[in-house]
Structure to design on (221 residues):
């Protein structure tokens, strides 16, 4: 079992560029979520999904889009990158939305 | 609005020196309080779930306790490998996990 896999691990973008952060899980979890982690701010929820075809906004959704076409995959799209989106991004999954979540290794994104 | 505050922000101990980390919370309809460990450059790793006041959970040198307003993570006779950032999170009726800022723990040999 690979658990939760995120790609890429590191990325540098120029302001205005777009990109997709990939997240895949092999545990058949219904619930998946995206967080960003900034120094002194803790983990903040961006978007989440309770199952294929269903997504909703978290605490800091502006500038990000998500979709969930399969149970396994939950990509996060940055439409037009801004320096304020420089952060470490984590994808997580859990069984039926329980708080015992499994996290990926993270993507460190720098926007210049 | 659900909120979690952790203290201290950073804690440095000598090997074998026991201490406690604090997690204060406010939540609408507590479904659970969770402790995670995060090593540098890695994602958080789940440690404990506490559901109701008075509950305790133990794992090796770690013990988590819960009251109606706080949770404590007690570390007994820590070793250098216990060095990590410890995160506390709550889940309320809305089912979203809300995390605190974390406590960065360093154990010196």
């Amino acid at each position: 079992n690979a658990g939760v896999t995120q790609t890429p691990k590191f990325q540098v973008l120029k302001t205005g560029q777009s990109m997709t952060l990939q997240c895949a899980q092999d545990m058949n979890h219904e619930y998946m979520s995206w967080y960003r982690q900034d120094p002194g701010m803790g983990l903040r929820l961006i978007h989440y999904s309770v199952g294929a075809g269903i997504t909703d906004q978290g605490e800091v959704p502006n500038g990000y889009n998500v979709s969930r076409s399969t149970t396994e995959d939950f990509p996060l799209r940055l439409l037009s990158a801004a320096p304020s989106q420089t952060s470490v991004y984590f994808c997580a999954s859990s069984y039926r939305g329980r708080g015992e979540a499994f996290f990926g290794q993270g993507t460190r994104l720098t926007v210049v | 609005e659900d909120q979690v505050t952790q203290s201290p922000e950073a804690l440095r101990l000598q090997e074998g020196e026991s201490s406690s980390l604090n997690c204060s919370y406010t939540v609408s309809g507590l479904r659970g309080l969770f402790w995670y460990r995060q090593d540098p450059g890695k994602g958080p790793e789940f440690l404990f779930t506490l559901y109701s006041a008075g509950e305790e959970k133990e794992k090796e040198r770690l013990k988590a306790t819960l009251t109606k307003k706080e949770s404590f993570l007690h570390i007994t006779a820590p070793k250098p490998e216990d060095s990590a950032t410890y995160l506390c999170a709550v889940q309320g009726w809305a089912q979203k996990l809300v995390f605190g800022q974390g406590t960065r723990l360093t154990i010196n040999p």
Summary: Chain B touches chain A through 22 residues (CB under 8 Å).
